[in-house]
Amino acid sequence: MSMRPANLKQAVSLAATALATGVMPQAMPRDPARDAALRALAAVAGERGWGLPVLRDVAGAQAELLFPGGEAELVEAWSDLCDRDMLAHMQDTPEPRLSLRVREALLYRLPLDEAMRRAASRGVSAQLVGGGQAAFRREWMRTVNAIWMAARDESSGATYLTKRLTLAQVYGATFLYWLAGVPDEAALAAFVDRRLACVRRLGQARGLVVGRVMGLMGLIRPQAAG
Fold this sequence. Notes:
By secondary structure, the chain is an all-alpha fold.
């Protein structure tokens, strides 16, 4: 069986919608031995897949014991490791502007690395064809949240949720573009810039509408009060 693009787009849409609950999934188990095994597996997963036999081959017979959830746990744990790598990288960014920190985090999380892209493609296929849709949604929610954390966003309440829902759309479009194969780094950066510019334009338009509505309310209230 193979994954169809329509199935992937639907899965991405459902994963983004899951953010509306405002409840983040629990953190994955983490330790250096698991991380080392995941890195060894991810290096060959694009060619050989995410199966436990491959894990045993590249990380040793005992590596399977590190993942009691079996094959279903491997891709989800690798996504979590990629999120943590992004967070570590972003700790030292000197960029003062929030929007550009988001851009930097996005581009780091989806690098122009063919081995990583192929590994991600095989992982998504394994999840969506093999019944791992819930894991796909969990890792998607974690990644969107991690990007905002990497950008050092300090919003709360409704703004916290709105920002994550907005970023889910940007990340979703970028992920699908990246997964399909990106010609070069400039093309990926330009794609991200277009998505972020669209978000800014929508935000500005909303601000204008709200401002006009509030202005009209200000004109109407005195007449109503009289």
